[in-house]
Amino acid sequence: MAPRRKCPFCGSKQWHKDSSSGLVACSEGHVIQNFRNESGETQDLGNYTMRKRILKSGRKKRARQSRADPKLYHGERARFHYYQCLQLVLRKQIAALIALWDLPPEFETVCRDIWGLHLTLLPRPPPAEPYHHMREQRGSDSDTGDTKPSLDNPKESRSEDDDPQSSSSSSEEEDPELAELLRENSELSSSDEEKDHTSQKQGVQSNYRFVSTYDRPVNCIAVLVVACWTMRLPVMYKDFIDVIESYELPYLDFLRLLSSDMTCHLTKHAVRALSPHFAPSTFYIHRFASRLAKLMYANYGVFTPELNASPVLWRVVQQCLGGTPTLYGLAKRLGYILSLPLTLHPSLSPTLRRIAPGDPDIHIYDNIPPELALVATAIVVLKLVYGLDGKLRLPRDIKDPASALPDVRGYVSAFRRMSEADDRHNEKRFSSKVSMPTGDMDLATIDEFLDFCERVLIKSPRGESDQQILDNYFPLSTESGGARLEAIAPHSIVEGLSATKINVGETTVLQPGESYTIYHSRDILGNLSEEQALIITRSAKWVGVSDDYLCEVVERFERRLRRWYYKERRREKEESERERLFDGMKD
C-alpha cells in the first residue's frame, strides 16, 4: 500500500500505483523516488531457496482432569461386575423359591449347573475377572524373571543401537535447532498414532451394547424354569409371574437387596439393566427358557424332560375353568389326539413329525407355553359339549360323558361369579399394570394394600423380622387376616350344580358335538358368543396372554381336530369296504 504522506513537489496525498512498472505516483504525476513494489510469487523454487523456520516452544499442555467417578467400573470389568450382581440375585431367587414352594435342597445344585451352561451358551460370554487376571499375569512375568520390555514404559525397550537418532547425536549438539525440529517431528508422529488409536477405540465403543437381550435378568427366571422342568415340578409361567408381582421372588427393584459395596460400582447403564419395571410376560419367559433348553440339548446333549402334564392339566381344569374330573379326562384324551408337544422346544419332542411348511397339518403353534395349549384344549372340549353359541345341546344316552358334566346355564353362571370373585380377591390387583384408585377401595382392600406396601417397600437394615417391623412401625391389629385368606382360598364352582339332563324324544335339540362352529380369529368384524367370550377372557388373563392369541390357538386346534375326524372317517370307510370285499370273496 502506498505511504500516507505529502508529495514533496505539490503536497498531494492521493497516490496510485502503476501496474506495469510498479512505481507509485501522486495525482499530479510526480513519482516517488527509491520506492518499488515487487511480487515475490514464483512457480519453481530452486535448491538454495531459504525458508524461515518457526520453532515451537517446548511447553506441553496441561492434561485435562477427568470428572469421571473413579468408583464406577467400565468395559469388561463392568460387565464382569454386572454378572456378579446377576448371579447374587439368582442365589436369592433360588433361596426364595425353596422357602416358598418347599423345594428340596437339590434344586440349588440343579440351578447352579444350568446357570453354568447358560453362561457358556451366551453369544458373548462374560469375561474373566479383568483386574485380578491382569495382576496375576504381571505377577507371573515378574516371578519368572522375564526380561521382556514393559508395555507401561516402552522407552525402556529401545536401545541406543536401535535408536535412529543416536547416529546424529554429535550433529544435534552442534545444531540445537535441528535437534528441536527432530523432537517436534517425533512428538507429532506419536500424537497422530494416539489419535488413530483413540478413534478406533471410540468407534468400537460406539457400536458396543453394554447389555444384550440374553444378558438381562429375565434369563435368571429362564434358568429357574428349566431347573423346575428338569426336576419334573408341575409349575407354570404364571406361578413365577405371580410371585414376582407380589415381590416374593426378587426381581423387581432388587438392587435394594444388594450391598452398597456392589452397587457403588454400577454405572447408570448397569443400574437400568438391573432394574426391570414390570414382571416378564408369559411369552417372554417362554422365549428364553425354550432357547436355553434347545441349546443345552444341541451343544451338550442335556435333555430337558417333558412337562409334568397331569398336575398342570388338573390345575387348568379346576382353577381356570372350574371343571370336574370328567372334563379333565376328556381334555386329556383330546390332547393325545391333537398330538400336543409338551416340551420346552419342538426339537426336544421325539414323536413330533417333521413335515413340510406347506402341509396343512403343520403345527405352527407347537412352540407355545404348554399351559396355553392345555387351556385351549379344554376350551375345545367345552365347545364340543356345550356348543357355547347360544344353542342348547343335550346328550341322548346316559353313557355320554356330557351327562356327567353340570348344566350349561348353571356352569356359565358359576363361571361368571368366579370371574367377579377374581376381581375382588386377587393379589394381582396391586401390581403396576392394574389401575386402582385408592378412592374406590373399601376398608378391607385398604388394609390389604397397606400390608402389601409394608412387605414390599420396607427393608430393615438391622435385619428385623416382618413381625418386628410391623409391631414397631405399624401397630395394627391382624386378627381378621386369617378369615380374609380363607375367603380367597380356591374352591370348586360346580359344587351343588345339577347335572346335564338326558334328552328323551326331542329331535329338534342338538347333541354334543353337533353343528360345531369355528370362529375365524382374523375376522375383526365378527363377535364371539357371550358364553365363549366370557370363558376366553378369563382363561387368557389366567394364562397371561391376549384374548386374540388364545382365539387363534383354539381355532388352530379345532381345525386340526376337524382334519383328524375326516381322516378317521375315511379310514373307517376303507376298512368297512375292505371287510365287505373280503366277505364277498368268501361267499
TrEMBL record:
Residue ranges with Basic and acidic residues bias: 130-141, 180-199
Protein's UniProt keywords contain Zinc-finger: yes
InterPro entries assigned to the protein according to its UniProt record, in alphabetical order: Rrn7_cyclin_C, Rrn7_cyclin_N, TAF1B/Rrn7
Domain Rrn7/TAF1B N-terminal cyclin: start-end pairs: 173-258
GO molecular function: RNA polymerase I core promoter sequence-specific DNA binding; zinc ion binding
Domain Rrn7/TAF1B C-terminal cyclin: 280-455
Keywords: DNA-binding, Metal-binding, Nucleus, Transcription, Transcription regulation, Zinc, Zinc-finger
Region feature Disordered, mapped onto this chain: 128-204
GO biological process, one term: nucleolar large rRNA transcription by RNA polymerase I
Cellular component terms per the entry's GO annotation: RNA polymerase I core factor complex
Protein location: Nucleus, Nucleolus
Keyword Glycoprotein set for record: no
Database matches in Pfam families: Rrn7_cyclin_C, Rrn7_cyclin_N
Major place of residence: nucleus
Family: Belongs to the RRN7/TAF1B family.
Protein name: RRN7-type domain-containing protein
Lineage, uppermost ranks: Eukaryota, Fungi, Dikarya, Basidiomycota, Agaricomycotina
